[in-house]
Amino acid sequence: MADDRLVGVEALTRVQVRPYRSPDAWFRDAYEVGLGPDLEIETLATALGGLDLFPTHMFLALNVSPDILLDQRFSPFLEGVDPKRLVLELTEHTAVDDYRPLMTALRPLRDRAPDWRSTTWGPDTPTCSTS
Q: In what residue span(s) does the EAL domain sit (predicted)?
């Protein structure tokens, strides 16, 4: 940036429990016992709860799984959030065979901000695609 102004931040999950385990381990274990979407929704709620702490010109980047994009709680969860302040990064930990349902799930965000773009990048996407 020409003026060295901070334009965005990324929310990362950290669990302060000993012994230390990586966030990936917590999410993996949560998914194994059927609590993965609940853990993701809670971490997203915590991150979005801090969005108002930053100036309105700044964006918040969030890592989301394909499961969360398709979860019935996802779209209503973001209704009060300005899409222009969000960057959604599709986690690379889950392979995606068909991106069409994910793009459909993102339609409410695009409808509210037609110039909003989602970007996917991961081991199963040979190129970066925006829509």
A: 1-131
In a domain, 15, yes or no: yes
By the 8 A CB rule, do 9 and 61 touch? yes
**Cα three-residue angle 55-7-42, rounded to 5 degrees:** 70
Residue 2 tokens, joined: 């020409």
| Residue 19 predicted with pLDDT over 70 | yes
Check which CATH number belongs to the domain holding 111 and give it. Answer: 3.20.20.450
Domain limits for position 36: 8-130
Output the pTM of the full model.
0.78
Domain total in the chain:
1
What are the pLDDT digits (tens) for 57-108? Answer: 999 999 888 888 899 998 888 888 888 898 888 877 677 888 889 888 888 8
Q: Who contacts 127 (Cβ-Cβ below 8 Å, separation ≥6)?
A: none
Top pLDDT among 17 and 125 is at 17
6 secondary structure, DSSP code:
-
